[in-house]
Each structure stands twice: as structure tokens, then as C-alpha cells.
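dumping the sequnces here before i forget
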Amino acid sequence: MFDVAGIVVALAVLLVIYRVIKGPRICDRVLAVNAIGTKTVVLLALIGFMYERPQFLDIALVYALINFIATIAFLKYREMGRLD
Amino acid sequence: METRAIITLVLLGIGCFFIVVASVGIIRFPDFYTRVHPAGKTDTMGQAAVLIGLAVYEGLSLVSVKLVIIMLFLAIANPTATHALAKAAYVAGLRPWRKGEPRR
Amino acid sequence: MSFILTAVIMFGFWLLLSGHFTFILLTSGIVASLIVAYFSHELLFGDIDLKITVNRIVRLIKYMPWLVWEIIAANIDIVYRTLHPSMPIDPEMIEFDTNLKTETGIAILANSITLTPGTVTVEAKRDGKFKVHSIVRGVNMSGMQAKVEMIEGNRDV
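..and the predicted 3d for all of it:
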């Protein structure tokens, strides 16, 4: 059950990678990378259940935080030209 | 099969369906602002369904509380991030696509 | 006040993530949450009035079921538009004003707009002006606006 769901989510990530490579503007690419990050969190949780190792959930939580911070930091850099 | 496994199966199915449709939407829609719609909504719904399904499978424990926290965080952070992206694109002067124009 | 509240929330989060209750972990958790609370208690709450905040949280919880229903409707709408062979979309930008006063209210309305059928917030200003990208023409936003104003309550902080 969990492995099938994991494979489906991984295929969805593959689909979005098309937009990352093609995406005509930089904001399309950032949007696609953000979507991949969301799917990766789901995938990490599924992997934790697949191998019955709940430590993966901590990784998923930290990954969700980093993904959000990364998107916001990138946008701030684009908008202001600096990060401080 | 017991009831909890069936509920988990149904929620995982719904969640995976929405996640795949969100990916298809990000590929198919014609411009940036329309791509924000599947990325902001359908992804949020998909991850919520999958993570709640896992929490139902686990039952009440520290693991399911963590799953619910991840779910709530993503449900707040994902619309915020897509809104920030849309605002950045708008400030940069990206014009929204109108019906009848070519895809970009 | 906000310092103690932040420290308690941080320590609760620590306990939740660690799940162990040995002496060394509890002590380092208390020290870490005190340090974090010292540096960031103004960020999380600022100056708060506990009574108004609790009232708002209760009203927010009452608002949740309606929001969940709207999210499901929005997703079915997006799935239909994505998978339909000819993609029935006709996007436009709309602008409108609201009477929201607090930043929390504006944030809740902005995220609710993003999650509900056919609309994504593009710009939400502090004085309550909103710019919304809508995937079909002629969307009415007044119902949700009234609901968020009700959460915020009539008293200003």
C-alpha cells in the first residue's frame, strides 16, 4: 500500500521536473521546485511508514521548514538583491 | 482487512490522485498565474489527505501527532509560499495570460 | 507575558519532537526554549490581550469546517479544469477593498482566498487592499470577507 503510493508520488515529482527544466521564466521554476518540495515531504513520510522507521518523520518536518524558508529566501533575494 | 486500513487506503488513493493532478496542472496550464492555482490548492489538499491517511493508520501516538503537525504546517506554508511567488511575479511586471493568447 | 507563553510553547514542541524524558534532554530543552523565547517572543505574539485572542481562536475553529468544505470544492473544480481536454479557463485580475484591521485577519483572508475555488491572492496590503487572480470571470468574494471580519471581531487591538 505505502510502496504503491510512494511510487505514484515519485512519478508526480518526475512530471514536475519537466516544468523545472522547461519553465520559461524563473518564477515558473521556483514554483515547480516548491511543489517538488511538498511532494518530497509526503514521500519521506511514506518511506518512514514503508520501512517502519518513524525517524523519517523528523526529517520530513525539517525538510518542510527548509523548503518554505528556501522559497521565501530566494524571493527576498530576487526582490531586494541581498539577504540581510 | 480492518476498517482503519480501508480508511487509510481510501485517503492515500485520494491524496495520490490530487498530487498527480497537481503535477499535470503545473505542466498543462498556459501561464505562471494559472499554474499557481494547482500548485497552491491541489498540492495542499493532496498532502493533507495522504498525511491524515498515515495518521489514521498509526492510531493515536507521538507519530500521528507529528504527522498532523507536518500537515498543518504545509497547509499554512504552501499557500503562503505560492502567494509570495505570485506577488513577486506581479511586482516584476508579468502580465496575466488572457483567453486566446498563445501558451507561454 | 508573551515571553513565558513563547517559552512554554517552545518547550511543548521540544517534548513533542523528542519523545524522551531523561534528565539531560529535559534540561537542554528548557535552556534552549528559554534562549529562543528571549530572542523571538516579540515576533510570535507582540503585545497581546489574552481574552480577545482566545475569542478569536474559538471563532477561527468555528470557521474551519466551512473552509475545509470550500477547499474540497476548489480541488474538484481544479481537477475538472485540468483534466478537461479543452481546459475551460478564462483568467482575469480583480481588485477589492476590505475593512480588515489586524495582520492576522489579512493573513487568514489571503490564505483562504488562495485555498478556495478559482482564486489566488496576488497582493494583500496592510490597509486591506487585495489583488486576486481568478481563473474564471465574475467571482464574488463578499461572503468570505464577511466571515473573516466576524473572526476578527469588532474591537481593534
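Chain B has three helices and no strands.
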